[in-house]
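In this section we walk through a basic example: taking a raw amino acid sequence and producing a predicted 3D structure, encoded as discrete structure tokens. The instruction is simple. Fold the sequence below.
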Amino acid sequence: MERIRSLAGSRWFSPSLFLVFFVVATWPAWLTLADRWLKFDESYSHGFLILAVSAYLSIAVWRRERPKPGFYWPWVLPLLAAAAVYSAGSILLIGTFEQLALIPILLGGLLVLWGWRQTLAFFVPVGLMAFTLPLWGYLTWPLQLISVAVNQFMLSWFDIEFMVEGVFVYFPNIGAFEISEDCSGLRYFLVGVTLAFLYGELNFDRLRSRILLLVVAMALALLANWVRVFIIIYIGYETNMTSSLIDDHDMLGWWVFAATLIPLFFIARRLELRERRAATVNRSEKPLNHNHSGLRSMPGFGLVFAVLPLLAIAMISWLAVPSEADSNTSNVRQHSVALVDTDSWLPLFEQRLAGWQPSMQNPDRILEKTYMKREGLGVEGEDGEQIFIGLYTYNFQRPGGEVVYDRNRLYDPSAQLLERTFAIESETSAPLGGLTLRYRRSDEEIHIAYGYYVEGRWETNELQAKLAQLPGILNARTDASLLVIGLRCENCESEERLKQLAPEIQIRAIDYLDKLYESGNDA
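The resulting token sequence is shown next.
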């Protein structure tokens, strides 16, 4: 017993054991993060590097401060709150909640062991990990809109005829550019802010200097992206959409971003020199952060109360893991439903429309059918209407199996070009989004209607479809579906015809999905 008390009171045993329990309890969330960090074409490919830097800085702070463990009971409540958020994410299969709670759980446990004053020095090294969490993806849509507005302003200074609609820039008789998620600048924003945050921790003592450098880094990172997007759009316009830079422009972006690092570090150096001249107390002369409040004589209690929430998280995560049958994504089931009137439409033995087909990753249920209008068949010189219906459903959303996912595609940009967007509205159904696609090697067009049905809510925007999981907490449904309708016809007003057909198909899909999932018959 005396030996156990001695270990609990040592400076390294309690935090080390807590870290072991923390990693084990939150291991599923870390696996999800690692999967995102390994995607080097995304905004979080710096994750492993930041993890190593965070660990190094935390160890350096611990060796300098040598905090002594105790039991600081007021911090148990914040730790329990963070653990509750993580557990809610595990139960509801919302990875965002789990990722959001990781850093609060870690800091909450350290606060229970060390108190505020001793833990304060670890906030920046641990907080550095915040820049590796995919939570920043919610900034993508606002950054896209800002990029559109800035480039619209820049293009207005040139003698160029163009039109802006949403995130699309149209050049009449030339083509259209989509300022997509990759053009939001989130990748450069995160890297720039991370570098400024790290530089401030290593070289600045004043909070004002750190904030100023962060603001400058944000501005320069966004500027780099705006310049990159403008260059691509302008070259595409001048070359009539034939430049190779239109499809392969990653290297251009990093060169422009690297150029903005020169003024960033010049400003950082000026701030550092100004601090050195004005400093009255050297960093190494700062007093140690000691806190004599709390039950310092009871470090064992601190360890117990820091670890117990982690044991609860591990138990809940284990119970919330889907069974092997539920998580088997290789056994995709077919939707057994016809979303059109088969008396009017003849099914074809094809799963695509004129070579076009959406690409969705790991759905649990799928429907891909192509039909031809029976009326007009056999009429000389008339191909008739052809319609494609795709319904891609996830019984529940999980990493790699989500209705909104970066690898899901409504069309293949290498085969089709986006001509324009439109909305499909009806008094009897929810709105749907619309796209007109033109094949790169021909003038043929197809028109697409699409919408997301997430836990009983219809959305036409990816961000809104992602956020629709949150109000879904209030009901028992976990399903998420994408409905895609494609129309091709040469002798009709395709867009108007699609607007007539889509609402009826949407209503049939709603009735089918509601019966399937509200009755619990989703196995």
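Looking at the output, two observations stand out. Residues 207-238 form the longest helix (32 residues). Residues 283-294, 324-329 have pLDDT under 50 and may be disordered. In the next section we compare this with other chains.
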